[in-house]
Design a protein that fits this description.
9 strands; two-stranded antiparallel ribbon; alpha+beta; 186 residues
């Protein structure tokens, strides 16, 4: 039986004033589901600690640390690559109300964003936040997008060499030969 990634909801209005700490550990029974959720071949080890604190009048702030070992497939060779991630994150959330929505500054029809500025808080529709969804988003942001194995460069060079050797055959090379022949006759 395939177990889904568990839900771990936090109701924004019920966060204690002093905050609370939640530990999420990689129960082997759902590591496969977590691996599928983040798009890796396998997760061997996972743990996260998230501190949930009130933020502003109605919001919450999450400060977390994630530690995991996984295997990703090389985009060139398909070989499995061991990857270890250790990272910290901070995210803020507000209830999704009209007063909390912030429209971006628009100049000449273009959004103006400060890439070095703080991210605006995420809006939560029903006041309930699923910690696992946040963890999955954060893992996705920190994973190697195009993992490459140690022998990816040699595999690419071999493929390029084979393509160059085979470039002299096929329909386009026949067409090129006809065009060249026609030019030499004229």
């Amino acid at each position: 039986m395939v177990q889904e990634v568990p839900k771990n909801s936090v109701t924004m209005r019920n966060v204690p004033a002093a905050g609370q700490v939640v530990r999420l550990d990689g129960d082997p029974s759902f590591l496969g589901s977590l691996a599928r959720a983040v798009g890796v071949h396998e997760i061997d080890r996972f743990s996260a600690v998230v501190k949930i604190m009130p933020w502003g009048k109605h919001g919450i702030c999450l400060e977390g640390a994630v530690d995991l070992d996984c295997r990703q497939a090389c985009v060139i060779t398909g070989d499995l690559i061991n990857n270890s991630l250790q990272f910290e994150f901070e995210r803020r959330f507000l209830p999704d109300t009209k007063s909390n929505r912030v429209d971006p500054q628009v100049i000449d029809g273009e959004w103006v964003l400060d890439p070095e500025g703080e991210d605006p808080p995420d809006l939560v529709a029903d006041g309930k936040l699923d910690l696992w969804e946040v963890i999955i988003e954060e893992i996705d942001l920190h994973l190697e997008l195009f993992p490459r194995s140690a022998n990816a460069d040699s595999a690419t060079q071999t493929r390029n060499r084979e393509e160059e050797e085979n470039a002299g055959s096929g329909h386009f090379s026949e067409l090129k030969a006809l065009i060249t022949e026609k030019k030499t006759k004229n």
